[in-house]
Amino acid sequence: MTAWRKQEGTPVLPGNLHVPEDCRAVSEVLSRVGDKWTILVVSELGNGPKRFNEIRRALGSISQRMLTLTLRGLERDGFVTRTVFPTIPPRVDYELTKLGRSLLEPVSGIGLWAQQNWAAIEAARQRFDAAATGR
Questions:
Q1: Residue 8 lies in a domain
Q2: Closest CA to 95 of 29, 47, 131
Q3: Residue 24 falls within a domain, yes or no?
Q4: 8 pLDDT tier (thresholds 50, 70, 90)
Q5: Strand spans (E) along 1-119
Q6: Rg (CA), the chain
Q7: For the segment 74-107, what is each residue's pLDDT rounded down to a tens digit?
Q8: What pTM does this model have?
C-alpha cells in the first residue's frame, strides 16, 4: 500500500481514500491470516517444522480436511513450505517460510490482545444485548 496518494493534486493518507486494489489486497490477506485455523497452524509451526499428524494432534479439534485446506492455502500464499522425504511411507514436513515467520509477531500480538480484552468484550456484548432487548 502506498503511503501517499494524490487526488486532484492533494496528498491524502490511504485511510482517507478508498482505493479498490488496495482494499482488495488487504481483504485477501486478512481473510487468510485472520482465519482461526491459520492463526493456530502458524502459531504451532512457529515452534519448528511439524508433520501433518503432529499439527493435527496439537490443534485437537481440527478435522483432517480443514487442516489440509489450511496448509494448502498457507503453502499457496507462500507462508508454509511442504517438504516430502523419500521414505516408506513418505514423510512430509511443513515449515514456516521467512514470510510465514514474519506473521508470528502480529499473530501472537492479536492472540494476546484477545485474551487480555475478552472479559471487556463479553461485558460490552451483554450490555448491548440487554439494551437491545429492553432488559
A1: no
A2: 47
A3: no
A4: low
A5: 5-7, 10-12, 50-51, 80-85, 91-96
A6: 20
A7: 999 999 999 999 999 889 999 999 999 999 988 8
A8: 0.72
**All 3 cell numbers of residue 99?**
514470510
Residue 69 structural domain: 34-133
Say which residues have a Cβ less than 8 Å from residue 56's Cβ, sequence separation at least 6: 62, 64, 67
Q: Is residue 6 part of a domain?
A: no
The answer to the question of residue 54 being in a domain is: yes
Helices (H), 46-103: 52-59, 64-76, 98-101
Rounded Cα distance between 135 and 116, Å, is 28
Q: How many independent structural domains does the chain possess? A: 1
Q: Which three cell numbers stand for residue 18?
A: 478508498
- Res 4: pLDDT: 45
Assigned C-alpha cell, 106: 502480529
CATH number, domain containing residue 46: 1.10.10.10
Name which residue leads in pLDDT, 102 or 134.
Answer: 102
